[in-house]
Amino acid sequence: MQQPDRQSARAGREGDVLAVVSQSGPTVSFFDAATDRHLGAVDVLAEPHELCFDPTRRLLWCASTYSSGYYHDNAGRRTELTVIDPDARRVVDVVDIAPEHGPHGLALDAARGRLYVSVEGSGDRPGGVVVIDTESRKPLGRIDTDAPGPHWFAIDPAGTIGYATNKEAPFVSVVDLERGVLTAKVEVPGSEGLAVSADGTHAFVAAPYGSFSPPRAADGSVGAAPVPGIRVVDAATASVTEVLPTENTVFPVHLTSTGLLLAGELRMETDPGSRLGRQAPGRLLVYSADTREAIGEVEVGRFPLTITSSPDGGLAYVSGVVSSTVDVIDLEILRSLARLDIARSGEPGAHGLAYVPRPT
After folding, report:
1. Which stretch is the leader sequence (predicted)?
2. Of all residues in the chain, what percent carry a pLDDT higher than 70?
3. Over 80: is that where the pLDDT of 242 sits?
């Protein structure tokens, strides 16, 4: 369903493309960033989750995480990453990282030609981060995170420190990317999405983990739920220094080039319904990353799961995995310009996003 557009928000975007994962497609679809016109789709392996664009080689990396289903409700973990040419809109390679499995979070160090991929643990070792050479597309090594299921991963602008969020483990794993070792554990009550500030001094982490069920103690009793919101992590001390509280659970967190902190808040009906919950329309929450001031909010699709933005910071894109939509948000006036419908063959639907600037 299209909504009224603003010409100024689209100016200069001719040739730019938005890539969108359909988790149950399973596809990666491409949309014209200036007109929202659907340009085509590429079939990929089952259960694609996240996307990462490498501007140096003009390639998209897509992680396929499970054989079917999603975290905690799947039929087994996959081991592949699909490499896509977004200009020709075709698959150019499938990289198998077996015996590593459950690839999900993707973070690129373009200067060093390294792609970092979070992977889940197994009986004989914890989860970790696989380091891939983007030229040869071969794994270079692995960094343990001491948690069973690291899910999202982000690195600082210098490419020296990485952060892995862990759904069940009560900490965020901090790793030294140059030495390839775990250096700290930041105490948080389970975590979801994250982003690192432009100067590398802070990380912003969504917590607690979105389990859709009441927290329970070791004896099975129901305990008090942690305050939902965004934990502000000081990189120097590896500790939480501030909490930006939210009304409901937050999953994705994103920082724009203009210094806006964006978060996707879930809203649920009273009846929890299915494993993913009975989702109401979600909210995009907008803050100043510097002052932590709340700037505003915009209603988006059901179960916001991924956020990205245009390189100039003018537009935000929010995928709703239950509604299988992508909302295009003008961040200057905090208004939805359009809602893209993403084809799917079941639930879940729209997930990973990547903005691909036109070739220069």
Report:
1. none
2. 92
3. yes
Q: What is the mean pLDDT of residues 195-210?
A: 96
pLDDT tens digits along 52-105:
999 999 999 999 998 877 777 777 889 999 999 999 999 999 999 999 999 999
Q: pLDDT of 321-351, one tens digit each?
A: 999 999 999 999 999 999 999 999 888 899 9
Number of Cβ within 10 Å of residue 334's Cβ equals: 14
Q: Is the dihedral of CA 310, 347, 204, 272 positive or negative?
A: positive
For residue 55, give Cα distances in angstroms to 109, 122, 161.
Answer: 11, 33, 21
Q: Map out the domains of the chain as residue ranges.
A: 13-213+226-356
Identify the CATH assignment for 13-213+226-356 out of 2.130.10.10, 3.90.650.10, 3.20.20.140, 3.40.640.10. 2.130.10.10
* Whether pLDDT at 4 is above 80: no
Please state the φ and ψ torsions of residue 10, each to the nearest 5 degrees. Answer: -100, -10
